[in-house]
Amino acid sequence: MKCDIAVVGSGLSALVATRTLQRAGRNPVLIWPGLSSLYFLYATVDVLGYANATTAQPVEEPIAGVRQLIADNPEHPYARAGLAALQDGTALLLTWLREAGFNWQGTLARNLFLPTATGTPKPSCLVPTSMIAGDLGRDEPIAFCGFDGYQDFIPELAASNLARAWTGARRTVTSVRISLPGIKSDRLFTSIDLARSFEDATFRREVADQLRRAVKDEGARLGMPAVLGLTHDTDVHAEFEKETGHAVFEIPTVPPSVLGLRLFDRLRRHLQETGVEMIWQAPAHDAEVADGRCLRIHLKSAGRQQPVEARAFILALEDAVDGTWRAGAQAVRDPFFHQLLARHATPAERTEESLFQPQPFAAIGYPISERLQPMDAAGHPLAANVFVAGGGIAGYDPTGIKARGGMAIATGYRAAQEAMAA
Fold it and tell me: How far is it, in rounded angstroms, from Cα 123 to Cα 393?
């Protein structure tokens, strides 16, 4: 198979890189290795929530925070991608979301502070409109709404935690719990099941009727788990606000994320409908290099290896979910150039005991050049026409600073620019 530029990955960086190439008039092929991290991670696009992984002070202006981070850390992936890539890539993504039928809001100039499913405030930059009413910069009371038998959101816990952190004259927090029409509380059901049910007008009206009776404060905002529709979410959210008589905001729950499913499915479908070729469930590996350039990579398929030739390649593997690295008991290698990326005496050295600490394995990746090319131990590009975006970059650990979305956008956009120039 021969193509113009091949993008390998299944996360936001791969999608942004592919869309950047498409909008520039190129003909990219998107190679989707397997399970998408979007299912698990992307409820919002976080650009910079905290200046570093140890501070509890959130960043109010993401673009100013990223500018300072670049000045302080010239080797950081944000610095290599550049501030312009973040700005241009964010503008591209917001335009794309609108064209794909999404309704998102946000700006690089300001973080919103939104309650999580446990009631803790979280800084976020770009968010679905269905989450906007949860902005903790507003003073209207909040009522968290849960459902009997639904285990992924406990409104009492969220209310208790938020009430301690969010105080003021009108800032009251309450919780209610109602039964769901036609669903017994002892039945096992998921967020996806509920999202489909909320697209049924009769089901939705019955839930709205119960909430109008249960929530006593007419001025309260209703915080609900993110289950307001799977494919028609914009309409479902608007109708539900009318039916309840309250502003309603969705709260992301544990994976699989309905918000992530919406984002992944619609952007993927939009790419295909606008002419981008996608190769599904095909893990990529084994780059062939000659005269300093990558000639082809190989895809694993049933019973055979399929070579893919391209003028340039973007390795936008997001994280361990989509098979970025090959990890043995002691060594971690990449699947394309078979470079040794890390060595540990025991696998336990790759993790921290606390889930809330930055994890060493997340920072494993290729050292990269100023053009985002993967480099060997001597500092030479492994191939002049290969570029890295997302989780494949060494030091790319966005968890502690809440920057996963922004770093994916910036590196995906910049990698696409470099690939076109290769």
Answer: 24
* Amino acid, res. 343: R
- What span, in angstroms and rounded, lies between the C-alpha atoms of 57 and 71? 19
The residue behind tokens 């082809």 is 296
| Beta strand residue intervals within 180-270, DSSP E | 221-225, 248-251
pTM of the model: 0.94
Q: Is 174:140 a contact under the CB 8 Å cutoff?
A: no
Neighbouring residues of 120: CB distance < 8 A, sequence distance ≥ 6: 161, 162, 165
Q: Are 278 and 264 in contact (CB under 8 A)?
A: no
Rounded to whole angstroms, how far apart are CA atoms 80 and 101? Answer: 32
Torsion of CA 85, 86, 90, 91, to 10 degrees: -50
Per-residue pLDDT of 11-52, as tens digits, reads 899 999 999 999 999 999 999 887 666 666 668 999 999 999
SS3 169: coil
* 333 class by beta-carbon count within 10 Å (0-12 exposed, 13-18 middle, 19+ buried): middle
Q: What is the pLDDT of residues 79-88, one digit of tens each?
A: 999 999 999 9
Task: Give Cα 79 distance to the centre of its chain.
Answer: 20
